[in-house]
């Protein structure tokens, strides 16, 4: 297997970026925070210039709204004001010009393929605005990330929110967008999200007596191997991480407790001919001392 590029997720904090550089990485994926929603229109002046020039930038992740609510693709592109995501594209173009290579914009989507096809106005708005962005920011590509089947905020007093587009939907939507925009659109395969989906969907399928329990049809196969198969040829980036327990809050985006799991996933990477980079999107107690990132990177070097 040829050398795989390893990216590090980092927020707009110089100390955190320096720590990721010390840990070793081939590039950065910016983890934009809620403050970018306020400062995005003037990011060149609102943030230290060294943030953009300290180390190679490969991707920027669309920020979350307040309270950690996800800015999903199907939501932001159908609003009258699309400036929040436009600023992200502009940031990506800015970094691309500094580092003289293409930069990815990463965004989540929980849209089902059925709704994508049926919601003609949403689909039209998405392709119209995306076309405008691609024309205005020629060095920027889009990568759409798979989500988990349920969003739940502990101690919020609210019921869990179930998501639709958790598996076959995303590759189908991306393939549809590629018919218009070509390879400028691809997927991000988040392994933590995929593994959580596999866990929760297995439990749901086992409880659903009306569904087949053996020889599942392809659209009901939520195995990790099927995830790799579905994203084959269209995946631009993998978020390489794990989860523990229920996968939420501190249990999300963890390092691998079981190295055999990481070995199995990398075998799938090789089996299906992947050559995309890995972003180590790893939770830390202290992001200025990235113990878990180092541990995960060393494990990858071993396997």
H/E element sequence: EHEHHHEHHEHHEEEHEHHEHEH
Give the beta-strand count: 10
Morphology call: globular
User: Assembly state here?
Assistant: single chain
Rg from alpha-carbon coordinates: 19 Å
Note the beta-strand portion.
5-15%
What is the helix content?
Answer: 40-55%
Q: What is the average per-residue confidence, as pLDDT, rounded to a whole number?
A: 91
Distance between the termini: 11 Å
Task: Give the spatial strand order of the biggest sheet.
Answer: 1-2-3-4-5-8-9-10
Count helical runs.
13
Helix/sheet category: alpha/beta
User: Are there runs of 5+ residues with pLDDT below 50, and where?
Assistant: none
Largest β sheet strand count, sense and barrel closure: 8 strands, parallel, barrel
Labels describing this entry:
single chain; 303 residues; 8-stranded parallel barrel; 10 strands
Q: If you had to describe this structure to a student in words, what would you say it looks like?
A:
The protein is α/β, with parallel strands linked by helices and 303 residues long. 43% of the residues lie in helices and 15% in strands. The protein contains 13 helices and ten strands. Strand 1, helix 1 and strand 2 form a beta-alpha-beta unit. It is globular, with a radius of gyration of 19 Å. The model has no long low-confidence stretch (mean pLDDT 91).
């Amino acid at each position: 297997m040829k050398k795989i590029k390893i990216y590090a997720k980092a927020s707009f904090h110089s100390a955190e970026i320096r720590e990721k550089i010390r840990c070793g990485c081939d590039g950065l994926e910016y983890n934009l925070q809620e403050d970018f929603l306020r400062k995005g229109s003037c990011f060149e002046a609102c943030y230290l210039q060294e943030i953009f020039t300290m180390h190679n930038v490969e991707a920027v992740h669309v920020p979350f709204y307040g309270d950690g609510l996800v800015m999903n693709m199907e939501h932001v592109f159908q609003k009258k004001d699309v400036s929040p995501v436009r600023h992200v594209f502009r940031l990506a173009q800015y970094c691309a010009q500094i580092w003289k290579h293409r930069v990815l914009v990463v965004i989540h989507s929980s849209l089902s393929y059925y709704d994508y096809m049926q919601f003609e106005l949403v689909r039209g708005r998405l392709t119209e605005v995306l076309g405008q962005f691609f024309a205005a920011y020629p060095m920027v590509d889009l990568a759409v990330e798979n989500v988990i089947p349920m969003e739940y905020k502990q101690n919020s007093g609210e019921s869990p929110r179930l998501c639709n587009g958790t598996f076959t939907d995303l590759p189908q939507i991306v393939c549809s967008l590629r018919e218009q925009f070509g390879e400028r659109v691809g997927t991000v395969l988040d392994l933590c999200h995929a593994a959580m989906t596999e866990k929760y969907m297995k439990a749901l399928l086992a409880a659903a007596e009306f569904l087949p329990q053996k020889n599942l049809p392809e659209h009901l196969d939520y195995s990790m191997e099927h995830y790799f198969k579905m994203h084959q040829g269209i995946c631009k980036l993998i978020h390489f991480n794990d989860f523990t327990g229920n996968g939420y809050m501190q249990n999300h985006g963890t390092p691998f407790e079981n190295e055999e799991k990481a070995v199995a996933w990398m075998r799938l990477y090789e089996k299906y001919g992947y050559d995309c980079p890995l972003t180590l999107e790893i939770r830390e107690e202290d992001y200025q001392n990235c113990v878990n990132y180092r541990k995960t990177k060393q494990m990858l070097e071993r396997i």
